[in-house]
Amino acid sequence: MTRLRHTNLVNALFYLPRPAVVLVPLLLKGLTLIVTLGVTAWLRSTWVDLCVLAAVIGYTLLRWSALRYALDGEVLRIREGIWFWKTTAIPAERISVVASVRPLLLRPFGVCLIEADTPAGSRGRADFRLYLSAADTRALFHTHSDGDIDLPEQQQYRPRNASVLLLSLFTSNSLMGLILLAAILQNLGNIVGEDLSHRLMNRLGALGELLAFGVPPAAAMLAITAALGWSVAFLSEFLRNKNFLTVRTGRVLEVHRGLFTLRSCLVQADRIRFVQIRETAASRLLGLGAVYLHAVGVSRKQEDLLPVIPVVRTEQLPTLLRGLLPEFLPGPLTVRPAERSFLRFTGPALAAMTGSVVGGWLLGQLWKEWQPLTGWLTLAALLPSIWFLIVRVLDWQSSGIGYTNGDFTLRYSKRFYLHTVVIPGASVVGVTFRQSLFQAFRGNCDLLLDTHSQGRRRHRVRNLRLEEAKALFRQAGIFS
Is the Cβ–Cβ distance between 448 and 434 less than 8 Å? Predict the structure, then answer.
């Protein structure tokens, strides 16, 4: 058994208390002394503050000193605790995903944040999470990549920058961009001064008035804010996905990406729960698609799915999948939506369009002086409803389910995305045939297929013929 050893000193960051817990009481004490007794009294009492900080740092270093680890050939072991020791042992063969993050500030020190996950661990935290040296990182990656070779040679795919650009374009989220922008402005105000932050916001307001061109200033400001949020999200996604590289060696798939923060992820191919080809309405019409996978350990924090192949032409996807993920090739669909299903698919979008128009008209009648603004807000609500209608029409034309060589192939839409999903039969943990009153009368149903990976994932295919769907699952051996 390999001897347990100390971790890198950077791991002490895990045990540092939040700055507010330490600094706020000290600041309040200092302000109270300055106001009541003066600056001289505060300076004479600073030794107390220094003792508190020394105690916090000492306790942190003591906990770090008790943290030990070992990388054996077959087992990863971690021991932690001061008064009570807790030892965790993880069999290497049970690890589904190993993720490595190298922030720009830690690169000169040769340190990586490593996370290893198994199906039995917590959904919110990795089973193995440490800052390791580059040598130990390579050893752990080598341990994880050992195994039987099921491909004749290593397969690599490095997409063009245009593919990465399109991936960032289609996955950017205005809300996340606004949250990131708000955090940047807040920190800018804290560092440089509130005056600069306020001046930036005033400049944005003036820009909104300048670019309005007859549009109400409130509507123009709303549009500029959304565009700014989307731009920040786009830039963040592009920097995250720059230098994209996918490698398949034996039973392990590697995904490397990032410009300033380098990210690597190793996934056991037999632990992948499903592979998804994701399209927007625009990419479907342009013949473009991106491939993602879902496995234990890649659905944490903001990353719900791990991108494997950025946006490429759909006719190139079968060739790329055969090289990187030959176990997850989409098959033909054998069960399609029932006849006269158009309204079943487009009903929610039509209702949203009607609600936008009626709601805008009512607001205009109630507040006539705000009619220009309510008109623009109605248009802003109507545009996504029309886009949603286009997605549902495309879904009506293409959705369905098939079963080939032990794998299910599903095509369906969820919100504004169109999905083609390949699910191994062993990953299915639940099948539900759901019927409304009208569907029961016609013999139709919505199929809900559940997969499990530290949490249940549900896939929904709309308005299939009930008997045809049941016959498909009898063929798969799920129903007798």
Answer: yes
